[in-house]
Predict the structure.
Amino acid sequence: MVEVIGDPEDPDVESDVILRKYGLPVKFPPEVAGEVREIPMSVDPDAVKGRVDLREKKIFTIDGETAKDFDDAVGIEKTAHGYPLLVSIADVSHYVKEGSRLDSEAYSRGTSVYFPDRCIPMLPEALSNGICSLNPGEDRLTLTAELTLDGSGRVTKKRFYESVIRSTERLTYTSVKSVLEGEDPALARRYAHITEDLRLMRELAEKLSEERFKEGGLDFDLPEPQIILDIEGRVEDIVRSERNIAHRIIEEFMLAANRAVAEEFSSRKWPFLFRVHEPPAQESVEEFREFIAGFGLHMRGGGPKAFQKVLHAVDGRPEEKLVNHVLLRSMKQAVYSEENTGHFGLAFENYTHFTSPIRRYPDLVVHRLLKLLLRKKYLKKERERAGEHLPSVASATSASERKAMEAEREIVDLKKAQFMKDKVGASYDGLVSGVTSFGLFVELKDYFVEGLVHVSTLMDDYYIFDQKRHTLTGEHTKRVFRIGEALRVVVSRVDLERRRIDLVLEETRGSAQVARGRRRPRR
């Protein structure tokens, strides 16, 4: 016995177990804490010298309600020549020096990890929530991408520089949506001084989105669950997370800034850290083509625009979610690479991650390279060093990202199972979200939770799976279960170990429970 972690019913202990399973450290080593204590928690006047002063500009952050680490701030104008857009990103590299113990720790973590009840930051909170965070009303050092875009949303001019800003507001996605849609008069008065800026941002974001769509960019409509906790850390509700116009604004602006930085380095053919997404394998394309044929859909070619047409065709249809999921599984995973092979999903020839250095180590590396370029110090010796160093950085940070995603997915699945544990025996309305040979996946209407009605619980007939049409059909009754069908289901069992929620049809509740565990003959 090495250690007793704690009561398995304690929400904190559940998170600790998953953190240990994936080897995610929570505490920072003492030597890292010592380095952080040496960092001033206010901007040194000497550090401002030589930077472009943007403190009088209207620049603000837009983030989620619970966010505490603000890495990006945006500002906009409209002129006769187009839209000058400012995307200012926290200058983390000013405080996290390459080769320091703090830098080594950030590199080993690779990314911040977000659980429903906590954040495991890449950097200590004194930096991530303090001097590096673009908090309103406080001077902060930044790197700025200044992009001028024309009336069609195309970049006509770009400029990068070290800067200092003072964020005028800390906005949330919800408040921005409310102001833009006129939902709250009090908020409208509160933010009257930037309302016109927000309208311009919406106007530009829509143009950027339209231009990106023309190029073939894929936009998966896969809503994420939002887990709401009570004061004791237990799950109170699970709802579908909202993605509104404010999310779109920030998403489009960050994509534009990331792309612009990548283009700058790609054009020089200098060593750089790209974010790449390889095209799907031909076998995966053929399997996806065969899959959508069952819904009467056809796809010509295998480029981004071909997939885009399929997503457009299923928009609003019952099978939309399933097609999105299957298409996403057909794709290869985006990774970091020193070789620029393009980004298939975005349909960009050049792309990187520049906008989140507080929570992603690759962005910090990109900042350092951009600073060398701006200071005219990215010389032959530095380029040779980067060429040797970047492959290992790309490999390590890609692995860190995958590990973090797996841990985040597991904690969400666990929270869903725990939430439904005390609801065994309760009935809910739901919609069939997927049909397989072994049963029906049903998404509950009351909660953003999915469960399985196993085929062995359908006792009124022997059901045959049609892979092309994605249906289960009764051999004798001819009853058909298909995606989008409304069903009344009962929670029959919750398996916390396997993170699984079992359902039965309310109409077969008694017979299904008797049949539990019985294996049915398969044809």
